[in-house]
Amino acid sequence: MPRPMPAGVRTTYTAEMTAARTTSDPVGRWNHLERAHILSQPWPWPWPHTRNHIAMLGLALRQHDRREALGQVIRIIVAAPGSALGRYPEGNTGRANVPLTQPMPLPDDLAAILAT
Q: Is the CB of residue 68 less than 8 Å from the CB of residue 60?
């Protein structure tokens, strides 16, 4: 059985996903989803990484962004297996404008949360 997401990570992940749903600023929505993605990558169960990509797909569809939507469909397919195998690029924001396997620097606040 995979290890559960630690409470501190889950709290911040949930706050970022909630903010992504409730903010009216489209750029802010993407920013919150990207931060939630960074937090969710190591945990395939109970599907936070995949759930994050589904939310990104929904936003891309609402914004009529075909490139982003296609990128999210691909990421939905590989998100759970990648997390389950521990093969994910740390810090990657999960957007279609970033290569699937490109690691990125972690924001300091998220690095501290993930280190606990």
A: yes
H helices of 7-65, in order, are 7-22, 26-40, 48-62
The confidence score (pLDDT) of residue 87 equals 83
DSSP code for 87: -
3-state secondary structure of 97: coil
The candidate with the shortest Cα–Cα distance to 20, out of 59, 46, 61, 47, is 59
pLDDT score recorded for residue 35: 98
Report residues of the chain scoring pLDDT below 50.
none
Query: Of 97, 80, 93, nearest to 36 (Cα)?
Result: 93
- In whole angstroms, how far apart are CA 116 and each of 6, 14, 56, 96, 105? 8, 17, 26, 29, 18
pLDDT of residue 79: 83
Rounded CA-CA distance 8/95 in Å is 24
Q: At which residue do the structure tokens 């990648």 appear?
A: 82
Spatial CA neighbour of 20 closest among 76, 79, 60, 47: 60
